[in-house]
Amino acid sequence: MATQLLATGTTAASTADVVVAAGVPVTLFLKVTGNVPVDANVTVRATIEIKDSDGSYHEIGALTGQNPVGVLDGPCTVRVTRPSTTAVAFGIEQG
Question: What's the distance, CA 48 to chain centroid?
C-alpha cells in the first residue's frame, strides 16, 4: 500500500528523510492530481537527493513524467524535492 510522503501541490517542498535499510528496496513515485496522466507530455520533475554524513543533500536522480518511478537500494537516507511549479500539481508517494 502506498504512503504519501509529499502532498500534491505546486509549491516548492521536500519530503522528510526516507531511510532505506540494506536489503530492503524502496519505491518512490510521482502522484499527479486530477485526471492528468504522468507521461512524457506532462512537465513534472522532482529531484532525489542523498544525505551525506554532514547532513548535506546531493542530487542522485529525478522522478519525471518520462521516469515517474524510482527504486532505491540501501543503506542510505534520501529525500525528494519538488520545485515550485505552475504546470501540474503533483506529490510523492512511497509504495
Answer: 6
